[in-house]
Amino acid sequence: MRGGRAMRRGPALVFLLAGVVSLAALAWWMISLESAEPGLVEVGAPGGRGSPAALPASDLPGAHGAGGGRSALSEPTPAVEEAGGPPSAWVPAPPDGPPHAPVSLLLEDGRTGESVPSFSIELWGPGGTRERLSSDASGALTTAAAFPLGPVRVTPRDHPGPRAETGQAVTIQHPGEGGVALVPLALGPTYPLDLDRPPELGALALGARLRRPTDPLWTSAADKLRPVRPGDPEWVRFAHGDVRSGGSPDAWVLEVASPDGRWAGRAQVDAIVGVYPRPVRIELRPRALLRGRASALGEGVSGVSVTLRRADGAGGEWFDRSFKDGSFELRWLEPGLHTLTAVSQRFDPIVREVSVEPGDHNRVELSLAPKAVAGAIGGLLRSRSRSFGRGGKAQGALQRIELRSSEGTGWRNHALVHWSETGEGMIGEFTFPDVPRGAYVVTPQAVGYWSWKPPFLAVEPPATGLEFVLADGGGVCDVALAARDAADGRALAGATVHLWAAGRELSFSDLAPGAVFVEAWPVATEFSWTVEHPGHAPASGSSATLVAEEEAAGCIRTLAVSLEPGWGATFVTLALDDLDVERPLAGVELLLDGEPCGVTDARGELSVRAPRPPSGAVFSLAGWRLLDGDLAPDGAPTPRRARITARFTRLR
């Protein structure tokens, strides 16, 4: 009976305790609302400075005066995983957590220092705090939400439409209550526009692109257009990557078009950096849209390259490649007579004249005839060391060899490699049967640090008896790491090794003591290395230091290194021109924690050692400004990085 009464009291006690806890939680919540401390953070709250409401886009960027202090940038180190849906309405802040405050930023063009208005960014803070908003006419913005003090990730969006992301996310340090963080952005140029819109065009949304004069006039890729923004005048801003493909900075063409392919115009511009000094006059004229289908025996043919050129030889060319169903589409054609060329590696080319008129009713059907088979292409791959063809990590990428057309059609194919062992090593056989006539290139696929002789062969079918030899005649060895603390001799776990060989870098992280991190490395291939470990200065060397160990250890070479406690790095300073071409920048003064450490040499390098990692790095060179680099949110060099790169652009 006593036990029965205890059991009946159990639920009552549980409900009583639950009620007490609920009342305490409610009382704490009401007190927190009345207090001045930000116990709760609202994300995306309406109103307030920098509210995510749409901002007028009529203000074009202009130079601004000296703003708030600069906040150093780093490579993206997202601490918060992007959610598929909108963030929670409320994000609780723990009572003993860091203080909260709105984030105030000033956006500027990293190359010119001009302010960046109407630019959309997304901010992420610790604990999932998130907000998307746009800068005002002066390039400034302030979040409606209060973010915890600490690192804040900034993702450039520019505009809410397609292809909105205009660069890598960066991490800044929260500037604190009343502070402003200066955020340089890697941007392309901005052009004010003086558009001559015909009445029939109306208020149809337009897009723009930049191209070199030698590029094809247009393709079907309408999603490559940057949106033309409303305003007085209308304007367009390009992303950093839109002008990275080379060419002269004073020979670019700005084109504006309607996404439906029926209107377009263009003008030449002589600057691709910053805000263009005057509106660009462009007359929009009627254009033609040509749709078509490439087929063989009634079935659609994919991968057919379709090119259209004006029959009188004037102007450039339009290009598209057929989809899986054989369809293709050429937009923004100049009305008149054109020459159409359709090329495929498997079918005979087609050349015909077509006449197009303004509008979207133009259509053409292409019936393709299969090419005659010329014969097979095949041969052998040889590995003297017998390291390949037996399975395992070293052999996997040598299962296929590539055959591609050298006639500009973009066609390529792969064949399996069948390995067997002989007295002279491993031999791999490959065959491409029934290859149509044409010119081709045969290429064994690269395998990390290995190279082939010859690296490729140009052939026409039939072509058998081809031979490629792997450069492994000197033998191979595995490479292991043995890293120790130079002070106490203990083995170090979690080290990272960087290898450089044949112009390539290979990295291996979180290595256990004595772990083999490279299998079947060719002895004849020299390499340089750097070993890093948290709390230790990095060490560097070359494969020449491993020769004696290789002779003693047989097929395993041990990279034995003693790491001094402390910190060290080599700073590399690079100058970036208008076309993203990098070159070493000498004479940059480096200060770590306010102490001068020297200047970069002719290679743009400066090696530094210190007892502990510095908390801040400052670069200085008259006439140059820091654009980006391997820096942590607080300006400190990125941990666990032996080479720290900083890129600069010239002040304008």
In short:
By secondary structure, the protein is mainly β. Helix content is 6%, strand content 47%.
Structure write-up:
- The chain contains two helices and 49 strands.
- With 652 residues, it is mostly beta strands.
- The protein folds into seven domains: 1-35; 41-185, Immunoglobulin-like; 188-286; 288-367, Immunoglobulins (Immunoglobulin-like, Sandwich); 373-470, Immunoglobulin-like (Sandwich); 476-563, Immunoglobulin-like, CATH 2.60.40.10; 568-650, Immunoglobulin-like.
- The chain has a five-stranded antiparallel beta sheet, with no helix packed on it. The protein has a five-stranded mixed beta sheet with strand order 29-30-26-34-32, with no helix packed on it.
